[in-house]
Specification:
With about 170 residues, the protein is of the alpha/beta class. The chain has a domain of about 120 residues: Rossmann fold, CATH 3.40.50. The protein has six helices and six strands. The strands form two sheets. Strands 5-4-3-6 form a four-stranded parallel beta sheet, covered by helices on one side. A two-stranded antiparallel ribbon has the order 1-2.
């Protein structure tokens, strides 16, 4: 392959990436910016509010979960195994329910703006227990076997192994 052909191929690859980038936006999280679909509704519109979303150990990436829930108006099943995640989601759920930041939580910078999000607190279903070697159906204690979107934030080596083996 000549240098010109190589350069043309590289330009084509960059253009493909640019087309893909047009579909994405960046969401600020405590862990940094995370790429996410600009229009999640177009992907899940056939299911809409009946989209079954499960998020595992969402602590640092909670803004992505809120974006999904707000964009689809669907329930979000949160499997939270560590106390930090549980505490953050308790505060966030309270803020969404009251539509304001409670005085005792006003020092949390990460909470700013979430009182204005269009997420129904009843759509956030928190499961607070350690994640064990089991099925998602058992973890969720539900008869629903369908998961349309699974978001995982592994916290330890055992969970990394479990989730990478899926």
């Amino acid at each position: 392959m000549s240098t010109v052909e190589s350069l043309e191929k590289a330009v084509e690859e960059v253009e493909k990436v640019d087309e893909f980038e047009k579909l994405l936006k960046r969401i600020d999280t405590p862990a940094g910016k995370v790429p996410f679909l600009k229009d999640i509704w177009s992907v899940f519109s056939s299911k809409g509010t009946k989209t079954n979303v499960v998020s595992v150990n969402s602590c640092d990436s909670f803004p992505v979960d809120i974006e999904i829930c707000e964009g689809l108006g669907c329930q979000l099943q949160l499997l939270l195994s560590d106390p930090a995640s549980q505490a953050r989601w308790d505060i966030l759920t309270k803020t969404l329910k009251e539509r304001k930041i409670a005085e005792e939580n006003s020092s949390y910078e990460w909470l700013k703006g979430y009182e204005k999000k269009w997420v129904l607190p009843r759509n956030l279903i928190l499961h607070k227990k350690p994640i064990e070697w089991t099925t998602l159906s058992e973890l969720l204690e539900s008869k629903e076997n369908r998961v349309d979107l699974l978001k995982v934030e592994p916290k330890n080596n055992e969970e990394h192994f479990l989730f990478y083996s899926m």
